[in-house]
Amino acid sequence: MAHYAIGDVQGCCDELLKLLSKIAFNFGTDTLWLTGDLVNRGPKSLEVLRFAMKHDYCVQTVLGNHDLHLLAVAYGGARLKKGDTLDAILNAVDNKVMLEWLRHQPMFVAHNHYAMVHAGLLPDWDIEQAHDYAEQIEQTLVSDRFEWLLQNMYGNKPKQEADISSELERLRFSLNVMTRMRVITQQHELDFDFKGEVDDIPAHLMPWFAAEHPAWADHKVVFGHWSALGLHVDEHVIGLDTGAVWGRELTAISLPDGRVTQVNGHKQAQDTMA
């Protein structure tokens, strides 16, 4: 009964299946965590979404920013962007079933001293708080107010918890932490401008996981989202977005022994970059 986690797939279905074959994943006994961003940018978002649905008895995903973008486009909260590869899902005959399944997926999960979220957790949040804030989003997404949230979730404010003054601001802040965050200020204020490598982070900022004594330190947090970070494993976190959709690697890690397995990323992206 092995437990694996895989970073952002983003429509790279062939690479996902190759990686699962390489680790000899057993669909009858093993568990797989996917760090979110199942869809978009890659060539087979529809196939990845159908794979996750078909195997949701052993595959657990969390919602990423691209998954939420798909929902927002489908329900009138956003428009398709240049580079989006979501048409196959939006035009599928069973799209309503897939979208319904997707909006019922969690923002955050925790099990056996491991936790998973797409982008990260605020250092001030303990695991119970993270569960509570995730549940607020999840309950809204499955309620009759889900379109309201999808239409109003976009925006960079508030940037710190002290500035929250409404339900919408609470939901947006939690969403931004869990699906968009990479770096924060020393005062734990969110910064959305920096998206590069750790060595290039400005002096006034730091990775969200670099804060001293984070409140969630009794769990190891598995996350994706930050492709420029690449594979990152330390005492408190495991970062798994290694840029498969950009032609780098798709990465799996075995929990808790830490064994890492990779396959080459999306070939078309490799050819474009060559």
Which features would summarize this protein structure in a list?
single chain; Purple Acid Phosphatase, chain A, domain 2; five-stranded mixed beta sheet; 9 helices; 274 residues; alpha/beta
Which superfamily, in CATH terms, is the homologous superfamily?
Answer: Metallo-dependent phosphatases
Cα gyration radius (Å)? 18 Å
By CATH, the architecture is named: 4-Layer Sandwich
Helix content: 25-40%
* Number of structural units classed as domains: 1
Protein described:
The chain has 274 residues and is an alpha/beta fold. It has one domain (3-273): Metallo-dependent phosphatases (Purple Acid Phosphatase, chain A, domain 2, 4-Layer Sandwich), CATH 3.60.21.10. Helix content is 31%, strand content 18%. The protein is built from nine helices and 13 strands. The chain has helices at 13-22, 45-54, 65-74, 87-90, 95-103, 127-141, 146-152, 167-179, 267-273; strands at 3-6, 31-34, 59-61, 108-111, 114-117, 183-185, 190-191, 205-207, 220-223, 232-233, 237-239, 249-255, 260-264. The protein has a five-stranded mixed sheet, covered by helices on one side. A five-stranded mixed sheet has the order 4-5-9-11-10, covered by helices on one side. Helix 6 packs across helix 8 (167-179). The longest helix is centred in the middle third of the chain and has 15 residues, at 127-141. The chain is globular. The N and C termini lie far apart (40 Å). 41% of the residues are buried. The mean pLDDT is 96.
